[in-house]
Amino acid sequence: MSDESTNTIPGPVSRSGSGSWAAACAVVVCGKSVAEFLQGYLTCDTADLTADTPRAMALCNVQGRVVACGWALMLNDHLQHDTGQAIALIVHASLASRVREFLKPYLMFSKCTFDESPYDVQVVCSNAAAFPIKKITIAPAADSESADRQDQSQTCQQLLVAAGFVFLEEPVSERFLPQVLGLDVFDAIDFNKGCYLGQEIIARSQFRGTFKRKLQLNFWHTQPPLVGSKWSPAGTVIAVSAAGQLLAVVPV
Fold first, then answer.
1. Per-domain residue ranges for the chain?
2. Contact (CB, 8 A) for 186 and 57
3. Distance CA 123, CA 60 (A)
């Protein structure tokens, strides 16, 4: 991740935090074969999912463009015990409906369903280690204890942007390959697993092609740019933090 600016970041970067993450949403998929079902649609290996460690992942369309990205998390203590396994896809709140809409036609041919219950995403984050998101859990949104937790959305965004991890938002959905967004750096793509939607294009680009665009860390001044807006000279703003940093896809 390169940086073309030497100016001071206009604002402090939060060091750590724990609480609710309002900018994130949990799309919960349930079923006795949910890991096998999602294996055909996520870039990570769902056979390796655990309840202890969120796994970076992306959901891509047939052209290999990222619909949404974030984390997959196995839920061992899911409330609906009669549904078998449950996996939570932690995605940006602006894309939660899109993820459900995208997966819904494929669910018709599986024995899996969505859990439509609202959940509160809870997070523990810190920049003391290599990656800022240390733990993600979900709880029923009606839980009064979770409702009282401080929202850590700004802290999470600042730390993720500084680390170079894209938490994709709606304006830039289905526009970029996962490698262009730098998701391969965070092991969000398993190149050894079986086929999944978009896998052929993603793999061919990785092993036989060259990328004409890349993700880059930059700074904004005065006014934060909008996600999806142009970044000079021919780039696109992907993520913005209140600390004055942004991630943009730019020509190589």
1. 16-251
2. no
3. 25
Instruction: Write the CB contacts of 39 (distance below 8 Å, at least 6 apart in sequence).
Output: 45, 46, 47, 193, 194, 196
Q: Distance between terminal CA atoms of the chain?
A: 12
AA identity, residue 2: S
3-state secondary structure of 172: helix
The encoded tokens of residue 80 equal: 């609906």
Q: What is the pLDDT of residues 53-96, one digit of tens each?
A: 899 999 999 999 999 999 999 997 665 555 678 999 999 999 99
Domain with residues 16-251, CATH architecture: 2-Layer Sandwich (3.30)
Q: Give this prediction's pTM.
A: 0.90
Which structure tokens are listed for 22?
A: 């309002």
Which helix H or strand E contains 102, and what residues bound it?
A: helix 96-107
Burial environment of residue 233 by CB neighbours within 10 A (0 to 12, 13 to 18, 19 or more): exposed
